[in-house]
Structures are given as structure tokens and as C-alpha cells.
Sequence to fold (500 residues):
Amino acid sequence: MSAQREMKEKNPWHKPLTIIITVIGVIAIVALVTVAGLQNRPVFQKYKYGIVLDAGSSHTALYIYKWPAEKDNNTGRIEQKHSCKVKGKGISSYAAVPEKAGTSLTECMQEAEMQVPAWRHQETPLYLGATAGMRLLNMENKVASDKVFEAVEKALQRFPFSYQGARILSGQEEGAFGWVTVNYLDDRLKQGLQTTGALDLGGASTQISFVPHEYDISESPSNAVAFQLYGNYYNLYTHSFLCYGKDQALRMALAHQTRSGPIAISDPCFHPDYSVTRNYNTLYDSPCVSERKPKVAPLNFTHTGEGNFLQCQEVIRSLFNFKSCKYSKCSFNGIFQPPVQGSFGAFSAYYFVMNFLNLTDGSMSLETITNYVANYCSTPWDQIKKVYPDINEKYLAEYCFSGTYILTLLTEGYNFNTETFSKIKFIKEIKGSDAGWTLGYMLNLTNMIPAETKDSPPLPHAGYVSIVTVIVLLLFILVTLFILSFRSIWPKCSKEPQIV
Ligand SMILES: Nc1nc2c(ncn2[C@@H]2O[C@H](COP(=O)(O)OP(=O)(O)OP(=O)(O)O)[C@@H](O)[C@H]2O)c(=O)[nH]1
Ligand SMILES: [Ca+2]
Fold:
């Protein structure tokens, strides 16, 4: 009995001190795990959302962006959650039936309703920005353009989001916001790194934006945009060429070849054996070419292909005016442009076309690419259709023209040479978000490009380290005390080695 009592007294588990040490130890471990967990927890908290509709000349696309709810005070990373391509053509094509411009958006807007949690709908800003298609319609027929906007506004206001308006972006905004998007997604702005230029080829206009090496803004102030982002200053050069998107450029090329009103043309920018009938009125129904419509012309003309890259380049060159330049340097049409500088991201139709032609591999030289396009253009149309049976024939027929146009625009228009051309990356998206002006537009309108940069965890780093160190020290002391109190009974518990 007394031996049992003695054992009990010696057993450290029966000492109040041991119990206290154990309790404190457990609390310390729980505290350590909690602090570490909170400090390093993944950012999967609630999100906020923003929606931008890109009403382009060829089609409209809806983009939903999301960012961590507690970080919308400028520090959270914004990413694309979802995109939806509106069926049919761009809103400017509904000039004669404006209501349809509104209803065309319904499906994508319903998708947005599903994508954004219902409890966030009311606070989710919704923007619509229209680009070159509406710029042209506005020039051509202001009343029709206003009606399209009215219909679009009415349609968008029916949805539960926080509608912030629909408007036409200036070419300068379109270029600058594309540049912001690319550099934001690449984390170049936050880190103050060298920026990347942005090349956007749309259907009706094309934009070039970059930070030049030495830039005398005063030479052409209308091409300059000054930014202060994350504490850094940027003097951006940007220009948008209306009518030089790939659809309007093709119109201009066809207009050039039909200027005398022939019944047939043999076009070097289309494949040999290609042949379609085109309507004169349809071709010349755009402010980019309407003034050049031949006085006397039949209703239609036969458009056949010839597949000759060099001659196609000649036709394309005729769309540019390289002669007049009142500045120190010009791109074309008398527009000031400093020499291209640094790396570039080329997106939208630059990407669609170069990706189709398998020319997005950065290691290919300008010469290889040119030879490839020349060879592609000379391939007969029947053969092309056989090789690509699943590709929309309208797109397929135009890749020869588009490839040649892209090369001519970049080299002779913007003056990229063999060396600088290799710094162009043809991209669709960056880290899961599409390259384009929409993200930059939303960042600007929601004031989400901050002056300060740091993501701050709940505790400052020094505080976190101190707390963890104190807890670890405490644990160490407790474990030592624990071992010491156990040692008092070890001799009894341990087995003596037995000599047999
Ligand atoms: N091959 C191919 N072409 C496409 C695709 N999507 C759009 N395009 C064409 O590429 C060109 C440019 O498209 P976008 O960048 O959407 O042009 P947009 O925004 O409608 O036009 P802008 O208002 O001038 O910016 C147009 O000629 C489109 O018809 C695609 O998936 N594949
Ligand atoms: Ca566009």
C-alpha cells in the first residue's frame, strides 16, 4: 500500500507543477499553430467583382474580374474570372436595328449573373467601352450611334449590377489601357521593372503603346500619356490608327484594287484558285473607304486570288503614306513615333493570325517568318481548305492577307527591324487574364492602381517573428522542465541491466 503511495507521489503526473506545465505547453502549441496559420493563410477569402464589356468593331466580349474583398484598397491582385463572347457581330453593326444591339448582350449578361455571387450583384460595377466600330459609326451617323448606345444602356440597366455607363473610348485611352493591362498582369508596374510595349490589332483600329528611350513629349503632345503608378512615373507614347485594324485594312486593300471599278480583280493577298463574288456597295460601306468609291462600277466584282506575298506587300504599302512627316521621326501618315524600345506584347488579331500560322514561337527570325507567310500565301486555296477543314472559311481565306499586313505594319509602319522584331511576343493572355484594354480600363475607373504597393499580412513581419520566437522559447523551457521532473522517477522505472 505504502509502495503504491510512494509511486504515486513520485509520479510527476500527479504533481500540480507538471499539470500546469502541460496546460501551458498545450496553450503555447495552439497559439503557435494559430498565429502561423493566420499569418500564412491562403487568400481564398471573399472576392469582389467588376464587369467590363468590350464592344469592339467585330464583336463584343464580356470580362468578369475578381479581387480579394479585403484588399480592394489597392493592394489585391485582380484577375480575370470569366469571359463570354457575345454571339454575332459588334454593336455598331446594329445601326439599322438598334434594339438588337441591346438584346445581343443578354446571354453573356445572364452568364455574368450566374458567375458573380448574387449577394455581390448590387455592388459589382458594370462598364461598357466601345472602340473603333462605334467611332466609325459615330463619324458616319451620329444619330444611329446614339440610338445604339441608348438600346445598349437600356439592356444593361435591366441587370442587377451597378451600371456605370457606356461610352466610346478614345484611341489614346484604348492604347494606354492595353499597355496598363499588359504591364499590370506581368507585375511590372508594382515592381517598378522595365515596362513592355503593347501592340493591339483590332478589326477597325490598331494601337501601339510603349515607353520610349528618349522621349520629347512636346514634339507631339497628343501621343503622350503620363502615368504615376505605384509611385513610379511613366511617359507613355501611344497612337491608335483608325481604319488600320485588319478588317478595315482589308477593305482599303480591296478598295485600292477596285478603284477603277473593274468587274474582276486578281488579288495577290489571297490564295491561288480562290474566287468569290463581292458587292461594291458592301465593300465601300465604311468611312475608311467610302470616299474612294469609283464613280462608275458594276454591282459586283469577282475577287480571285493570286497568292503572291511580294505583290501583296506592294498593295499593303499603298495603304500607308510614308512621305509626309513634320516631326523628327514618323511611323506613317505623318504620325510622330519615336524609335520602338524594349520588349512588346502583341495581342488580339496579332495573336489570332500568328497563332494560326504557327509563328508565335519567339525563337523564329523575321526572315523565317516572312518566308513562311510567303509560302503560305502561294499555297492553292483548295489545298488550304483540305488542310484546315474545321476552320471558318472567312477567317481561313484572310490569313494570307492578315499575315502579310501584320509583317508590313510592324516593319515598315512601326519600323521594327530584324533585331527589335525578335522582342515582340505574340500573346493571348497573361497568367490567365486576356491581354486587352478592358482590365486597364477597370483598374483606372475603380482607382485600383495604388500609390503604395505592399500586401500587408495581419502582423508586420518583425512582430510575427517575435511572437513565434517567444512561443518556441517558452515551449523549449516547458519541455526542459518536463524532462527534469520526469527524471526524478527514471531510476525506479528504468530496468537495470541483468547479468545472467
Ligand atoms: N482567326 C481569328 N480571328 C479572330 C478571332 N476573334 C476575332 N478575330 C478577328 O480578329 C480581328 C480583331 O478582333 P478583335 O481584336 O476582337 O477586334 P475588335 O475588338 O472587334 O475591333 P476593334 O474595335 O478595332 O478593336 C477581327 O478581324 C476579328 O474578326 C479568332 O478567334 N480567330
Ligand atoms: Ca479591340
Summary: The radius of gyration is 33 Å.
